[in-house]
Amino acid sequence: MSKIFITCALPYANGPTHLGHLRSTYIPADIYARYNRMKGRDVLFVCATDEHGTPIAVKAEKEGKKPFDIASRYYGMIKKDLDECNISFDNFSRTTDKVHYDIAQNFFLDLYKKGFIYEKEIKQPYCKECVRFLPDRYVEGTCPQCGVEGARGDHCESCGRHLEPTQLVDPRCLICEGEPLIKESQHYFFKLSYFQDDIKNWIVSNDEMPANVKNYALQWIKEGLKDWILTRDMDWGVPVPLEDAGGKIIYVWGEAFLGYISSAVKWSQKTGTPWKNYWDDKAIHFIGKDIIYHHSIFWPALLMAYGCTLPQNIIAGEYLSLEGQKMSTSKNWVIWTSDFIKNFEVDILRYYLTINAPLTRDTDFSWDDFQRRVNDELADVLGNFLHRTFSFTTRFFQGKLPELTSPDREDEEFEKIITDAPTHIGDLLENYKFREALVAIIKLAKKGNKYFNDQEPWKAVKDNPEKAGNCLFLCNQLAKTISMLIYPYMPSKSEEIRKILNLEDEELSWKDASKFMVPGHTINQSKPLFLKIDDDIIKIEKEKLYHSLEETKEEETMKKLISIDDFAKMEFKIGKVIAAETVKGSSNLLKLQVDLKDKKIQVVAGLSQKYSPEDILNKKVVVLVNLEPAKLFGVKSEGMILATSESLSLLSAETADIGEIIK
């Protein structure tokens, strides 16, 4: 029996799951795991919550709690979401488990002893008020690329640029709002560049790897891989296991991957079954699009350094948008898993998120389209075929399967459709074509409806009972086949169908999906399996979604509002630019000397994308003059020039006098 090690990207324990998580990662992985179990393969399907890193630590400080308490809160939420969505993990653990700490530290030590990890002194922000170095997300400031405020020390959400904390303009500590110093700090780096050619060869030679993963990874390799910092100055995480590394933890991307292994070890401890044979036979990662780089480059390089078998494949689900807009948890433009399954069956969610588009393409969740697919495909096609088949068998043949007698050409063609289906659909699932396989199952139901209509058993039962018997014998066989083929997608509905067919105690084996039930087999009373969704229900869901967005917008607007007293504190004057030059090291900053009549001040302004020093010289400008001085790129700025945010057009008053106060 072949073994397969299947993993899902570790959900980060600072929030519950939403539909985007399910679509990209957890549902596809579960489909694949369930299918392989039906094929008789020995599957180990594991996951864990990723519980370290700065976002959890920051949230804990803001709430006055311990990071472990924050992670524990969300571990419970995430596990409940995934359990209720029937994600069939063999083990779901946590990266705060002692087993994980031991594995991560031993892994780090092994790479360090082999010379793949080395020390290097780098510049880091240091907060003198908090008395500590500030990891990336503990620092916020202005993006040096696009000039937008609120960029984090690792990333600017506005322009998407990867950043280092020391690159931020006008940085501030996220906890105390103080301006950090830049100090030297000793850190540990992984020799990622050493594995450039090996990683490239592994990716290029992997014929199974999907194009969306392969192409993305090769873009990074083409740019050249750089050594990766593997440690952080903080106390929330796995401590670096070296004597002279006090106060340093292993960077979350240096240990979170090992959550796959530590979860498998926990499973082994519970079952007594060794986990490593599963990994060595065939390891498959299911991840989201946003972490392709980490899994296709950084993780395999770490495994190469350690001397492990590499994963056989990486399946990356693309993004899910919502009603045509990018999903945003901060703006409440999101559907949380727990909210959805309060009102709808889990299986129809699993169906819709799979049928909507291939996994390798971005797709959109639309309430109207969700309703259409459930009503048209599940209720009118699949549900209609099953209900007619079962109710007619009960009505005309007392719930017992008739015999197949002297089948004609139409019967034989339909019989072949049934027996061929598991092979065709299985081939699609083997190649991770989950949507295509599900479409093929719905097409089977459509063919079943057509055959049923063509045979007209409601008429034939009176004048040609043999024909009616053949029709219902074969339609029940197709119902049985569909109940098994659909199990990886909709396990609960599969069980309901099998209960009606009186087959719930039989083994779910893919090879038996086309095995026919014998004549005389008794089926149970049927009931509608898929109910249509009313327009009113969808209207309510859309109103809730848009209402939550409006509430968030109102909250953001209220946060931006200031009182008349606050406004009165601001002092605006007309100034004249009397000297201008670019700021060294910045692509958009100008250093300006501004004459205010009673004094001259220096202002650093992000205007060079529109104005050269010559263009702005001698212009009259509106200046906020009582702004607390700040340093941008090491240059002191004593005020703010007023300009529009989009076009960078200056606010000016050419007829006003220099030094004139604006009221």
Automatic annotation (TrEMBL):
Residues 566-663 form the TRNA-binding domain. Pfam families: Anticodon_3 (PF19303), tRNA-synt_1g (PF09334), tRNA_bind (PF01588). Keywords: Aminoacyl-tRNA synthetase, ATP-binding, Cytoplasm, Ligase, Metal-binding, Nucleotide-binding, Protein biosynthesis, RNA-binding, tRNA-binding, Zinc. It is an enzyme of class 6 (ligase). PROSITE patterns: TRBD (PS50886). It catalyses: tRNA(Met) + L-methionine + ATP = L-methionyl-tRNA(Met) + AMP + diphosphate. Zn(2+) binds at C143, C146, C156, C159. GO terms for biological process: methionyl-tRNA aminoacylation. Its EC number is 6.1.1.10. One of its GO terms (molecular function) is tRNA binding. It is found in: Cytoplasm. A motif ('KMSKS' region) lies at residues 326-330. Binds 1 zinc ion per subunit. InterPro entries: Anticodon_Met, Met-tRNA-synth_bsu_C, Met-tRNA_ligase_1, Met-tRNA_synth, Methionyl/Leucyl_tRNA_Synth, MetRS_core, MetRS_Zn, NA-bd_OB-fold. GO terms for cellular component: aminoacyl-tRNA synthetase multienzyme complex; cytosol. A motif ('HIGH' region) lies at residues 11-21. Its cofactor is Zn(2+). Is required not only for elongation of protein synthesis but also for the initiation of all mRNA translation through initiator tRNA(fMet) aminoacylation. Belongs to the class-I aminoacyl-tRNA synthetase family. MetG type 1 subfamily. This is Methionine--tRNA ligase. It comes from Methanobacterium alkalithermotolerans. The gene is metG.
